[in-house]
């Protein structure tokens, strides 16, 4: 399955609410073994508004990612495009779209968390919700 593009996510968001669900497996534990933290799970099945859209993988930030984070550091809330020469994370793949927002975290259990993007207008309705589930 191909990667879910940022453009496809932007199209979904322009049509209304977006719900991203990331699911990972809950393997059986061996004697004396502890389950890792939910955010430390390495691989996920990804769904957008109920439709399977691929997989997600946990990664560490490299030099390119830190450069992008530094470029958007002055932005508190908003979305935009970083030109290719500024972002450089795409290795010549063109401009880089970004979105920066405040998220509210809700922990349901050791195996479920949700992040709700909070609108700065105070309407209280999240445009983007991200659910992490260990099943």
Automatic annotation (TrEMBL):
It comes from the Eukaryota. This is Uncharacterized protein. The lineage of its organism: Eukaryota, Viridiplantae, Streptophyta, Embryophyta, Tracheophyta.
